[in-house]
Specification:
Copper oxidase, globular, Cu-oxidase-like_N, seven-stranded mixed β-sheet, mainly beta, 22 strands, Cu-oxidase_C, Cupredoxin, 2 domains, 297 residues
């Protein structure tokens, strides 16, 4: 199974061979650093929302309950679903979900194993930038060779009331979803040094699943290793076309699955290579969009 550090996996029940999930869109106070929280919108008390994990051929029913003060929807980003289930009500027959109401999205998983995302597609400039997104992973039932499998979702935030370059005081901060002047950066809803390290062991085959859905692009760089680019937007890359890299640009709306062999023990950074994305409010780093790979002794 896939581990999303700092983010839960969404539980489900099975009835009549259908997997039933429930997502609650609601205001969330997300702690991004100890004592520092953002007032955003998320799912089931979390930003990003909980990770959904399914298999090819599964039939799913995902009930989305709206506890927000305005209409919302969910778009299943990169998934091949019927038009009415795609979650873009201003264009498609898919409905808006009004406050206090719910909608059941139901469809069969027809994509191959790979990494996708879900996010709001109503008032996108506001709702996505307040945090309405999460990971959607299609697992391979026959996979045997991967020892560690991690999902990392990158986000950027505009916190009101922060003077650039000043230490962040404890408290809860409102977000400005319409700013292009971002001052905080997170992986799975946490800023370094509050990100949870990814534990690996020597000789592990490790997969990192990378995704972004908001405004910025993020060149993600690994130290001490080279990774093989395995999948793009959930689609497998032919063996002959795969390349080794140590930095990959995760553009908004993209997912990438990369593989590497754990053969260089130590504690290794994995981070966005845009300099101010590795800071907390432009203060001395390291901070922001950075986490670590830690070999077990």
């Amino acid at each position: 199974m896939v581990i999303t550090p700092d983010i839960p996996t969404l539980k489900y029940t099975t009835r009549n061979c259908i997997k039933f999930f429930e997502l609650i869109a609601e205001p969330v106070n997300q702690e991004i650093l100890p004592g520092v929280s953002i007032r955003g919108w998320g799912y089931n008390g979390s930003i990003p929302g909980p990770t959904i994990q399914v298999y090819p051929g599964d039939y799913v029913c995902i009930r989305v309950i709206n506890h927000l003060p305005e209409d919302t929807s969910i778009h299943w980003h990169g998934l091949n679903v019927p038009n009415v289930m795609d979650g873009v009500p201003d264009v498609e027959p898919s409905p808006r979900i009004e406050p206090g109401h719910y909608f059941d999205y139901h469809f069969r998983i027809t994509n191959p194993p790979g990494t996708h995302m879900y996010h709001s597609h109503v008032n996108v400039a506001k709702q996505d930038m307040l945090g309405l997104l999460g990971g959607f992973v299609i697992l391979d039932p026959h996979e045997k060779d991967i020892n560690k499998d991690y999902l990392l979702l990158m986000q950027e935030w505009g916190l009101d009331g922060l003077e650039k370059g000043k230490k962040i005081e404890h408290g809860q901060y409102n977000l400005n979803p319409f700013t292009m002047d971002f001052n905080m950066f997170t992986i799975n809803g946490k800023s370094f040094p509050y990100t949870t390290p990814m534990s690996i062991e020597y000789d592990d085959m490790v997969r990192l699943r990378l995704g972004a859905i908001q405004t910025n692009h993020h060149p993600m760089h690994i130290h001490g290793h080279q990774f093989l680019v395995e999948k793009a937007d959930g689609n497998p890359i032919n063996d002959m076309n795969r390349v080794f890299k140590n930095t990959i640009l995760v553009a908004t709306g993209e997912t990438w699955d990369v593989l590497f062999k754990a053969d260089n023990p130590g504690i290794w950074p994995f981070h966005c290579h845009i300099s101010h994305h590795m800071s907390n409010n432009f203060t001395d780093g390291p901070g922001g969009m950075l986490t670590t790979l830690v070999y077990k002794p």
